[in-house]
């Protein structure tokens, strides 16, 4: 049964409330994560807790237990001069920047003259997420995985 500090392997399909596909992981390339340490969205971890290998479940995760609501403070207008002069900035381009002591991913929304309009919200912020999942594997995490706080299966980089 899935519990804290287990490495969970699962397949899933993810859709929004309109039925639009947002992502998936299949049995050939499952999602592996360290359960109970913030490696997955809280609403999904709550629903997976206690499941066994082979269990299938449909899970609905509201924004407050997923990627949060859209934060208007994360829509920023940044002077073009803050970017490297040789950088070709285009809409949908992403970059990371430290904000409030943590790393944020920003997406370029538009370029307006000498300003670049960016959005620091997660692309799935404000959305209700609909998962259809199956637990494919459960194992104890290694000491190294526990100390690093994530799975070492080749899918993460330091």
Describe this protein's structure.
The protein has 158 residues and is mainly β. It folds into two domains: 6-67 and 127-148, Chitinase A, domain 3, CATH 3.10.50; 72-119, Thrombin, subunit H (Beta Barrel), CATH 2.40.10. The protein has helices at 42-48, 143-148; strands at residues 6-15, 21-25, 31-34, 56-61, 75-79, 94-99, 102-112, 115-119, 129-140. The strands form two sheets. Strands 1, 2, 3, 4 and 9 form a five-stranded antiparallel sheet that branches. A four-stranded antiparallel sheet has the order 5-8-7-6, with no helix packed on it. The longest helix is centred in the first third of the chain and has 7 residues, at 42-48. The radius of gyration is 18 Å and the shape is elongated.
Briefly characterize the structure:
This protein is mainly β. It has helices at 42-48, 143-148, and strands spanning 6-15, 21-25, 31-34, 56-61, 75-79, 94-99, 102-112, 115-119, 129-140.
Structure summary, number of beta strands:
9
Poorly predicted parts: none
Series of secondary-structure elements, N-terminal to C-terminal: EEEHEEEEEEH
CATH fold category name of the largest domain: Chitinase A, domain 3
In whole angstroms, how far apart are the ends? 29 Å
Index terms:
5-stranded antiparallel beta sheet; 158 residues; 2 helices; 4-stranded antiparallel beta sheet; Thrombin, subunit H; Chitinase A, domain 3; mainly beta
Layout of SSEs?
Layout: E1 6-15, E2 21-25, E3 31-34, H1 42-48, E4 56-61, E5 75-79, E6 94-99, E7 102-112, E8 115-119, E9 129-140, H2 143-148
Antiparallel strand pairs: 1-2, 1-3, 1-9, 4-9, 5-8, 6-7, 7-8
